[in-house]
Amino acid sequence: MSIGAFVSAGLTVKYAYESLYNGQTVSAMIQQDTYQDVNTWGSGFLFDFGMYYDTGFKTLRVAIAVQNFGPEIKYAKESSPVPLQFRWGIAADLVGPDALLLSDEKSRVGVAFDLFQPNDYAQQIHCGVEYEFAGMFALRTGYKFNYDSEGLTVGAGIKQTLGSVKLILDYSYGSVGNYLGDVHRISVGAGL
Questions:
Q1: What is the b/e burial string over 133-144, where b = at least 16 CB atoms within 10 angstroms of the residue's CB?
Q2: Rounded distance, CA 154 to CA 187, Å?
Q3: Cα atoms in the 13 Å half-sphere on the side-chain side of 190
Q4: What 3-state class would DSSP assign to 179?
């Protein structure tokens, strides 16, 4: 059992620029027979902040993030809020070495829950489960709640070591609704 907790945090500063009409200034009627030159673009600095907390209790981990924190962006004479997003998640192994429920050296069952709240859409929830055997083969499934078109996802992965090279092959499937159909993703990785 782990004894100590571990906290890490990160901050990203970014400059955002968006143009509604090729970044030009145009003459716009702001009242009857009154015109004024206005910018068709907006820009500003935005901040992302995140924190990861390994509780030190078995495999329990918690994370939070705030993305796109910053001032409203002004286009012409009106200001619009930036797409501010809050995210909170928790993850743990239910089965496996140092797991919450059942200790097993060969198999691992991990679960994850994520709550996502954008300022311009309803709250969304993500849940997932991963089963891994001997650190070589994994099966995954998840569900996205309160999405217009997405929902169930499933996948599998293989990890193999050849000499000093680690090879990873992952596949996932997700349905993106009637208009976009099914999405298949394949990724291949290698490392030392």
A1: eeeeebebbbeb
A2: 14
A3: 4
A4: helix
> Pairing mode, if any, of strands 25-31 and 165-175?
unpaired
Q: What pTM, to 2 d.p., does this model score? A: 0.78
Q: Which residues of 168-180 are buried (b: 16+ CB within 10 A; e: fewer)?
A: eebebebeeeeee
Rounded to 5 degrees, φ, ψ at 102 are: -140, 125
User: Which residues lie closer than 8 Å to 121 by C-beta, 6 or more apart?
Assistant: none
Q: How far apart are CA 55 and CA 135, in angstroms?
A: 23
How would you class 13 by CB atoms within 10 Å of its CB: exposed for 0-12, middle for 13-18, buried for 19 or more?
Answer: exposed
Largest Cα separation within the chain, whole Å, is 78
Amino acid at 134: A
Identify whether the C-beta of residue 100 lies closer than 8 Å to the C-beta of residue 106.
no
Residue-range domain boundaries for the chain:
6-18+44-191
For residues 141 and 138, give the distance between their C-alpha atoms in angstroms, rounded to a whole number. Answer: 10
Q: Is 29 helix (H, G, I), strand (E, B) or coil?
A: strand
Can you tell me which residue has the tokens 């311009």? Answer: 120
Measured between alpha carbons, how far is 142 from 152 in angstroms, rounded to an integer?
A: 6
133-185 residue pLDDT tens:
999 999 999 999 998 888 899 999 999 999 999 999 999 999 887 778 899 99
**Fold held by 6-18+44-191:** Porin (2.40.160)
